[in-house]
């Protein structure tokens, strides 16, 4: 028991110490701003591509997947404006504007890569063009994934009615389309976290070694967003302080909290790996 307590203390001290000493707070700010700047170009690029392919319901699905896991007080005003922007008809898929949107969207992936490289304490050895191509592939995969989900959600009510008609015991588990949206959004987040931790940083990691940091990220996201949402409801003066910029400032602070938790997840994985390697050397 005492040995486990000592191990936990060493891992936490290593993770938190490296996060603080390696400019983790500044990296959280960088990641938050870059994520906000990449979010809108990604949604514009993805919606334009989806419209070009005939998936007209994409915009609504994309907004739900991105914002359903945000606290309502933070997501609602931004999601409404984003949806207004995305529903504007565009026919310029192959123009410079949309190509630049894809490029700026990939900057968000690059910010994730930089944050995780520092968290895992590895030096980047891959070339610029390889990294940028990989980031663009991530953007395209995310677009394709949301496109597939939007198609599935269109047919979900039909499939649900068919299932309920032929399988009696399944009725209590079907829920509503809102429940399915939350479930899909959560699955996308978990899958995305595993993907970015596994492929973006330099070096190689075992899949199972990613689990502690990802669990920490999910729990920290839930706690952080709940506390921040409660703060906005009861104590915040953002509206009076920032007036029309309040929703953007709230989003930036929220993304800062999420970014810090995300980086700490990588720090935790790295600290656990370092501890296990050190113990293996001692016992070996």
TrEMBL record:
The chain crosses the membrane at residues 31-53, 93-112, 133-159, 179-200, 207-232, 244-264. It is a multi-pass membrane protein. Keywords: Cell membrane, Membrane, Transmembrane, Transmembrane helix. It holds the Pfam family Virul_fac_BrkB. It is found in: Cell membrane. Coiled coil: none annotated. InterPro entries: Virul_fac_BrkB. PANTHER family: INNER MEMBRANE PROTEIN YHJD, UPF0761 MEMBRANE PROTEIN YIHY. The keyword tRNA processing does not apply. This is YihY/virulence factor BrkB family protein. Its main location: membrane. The keyword Cytoplasm does not apply. It comes from the Bacteria.
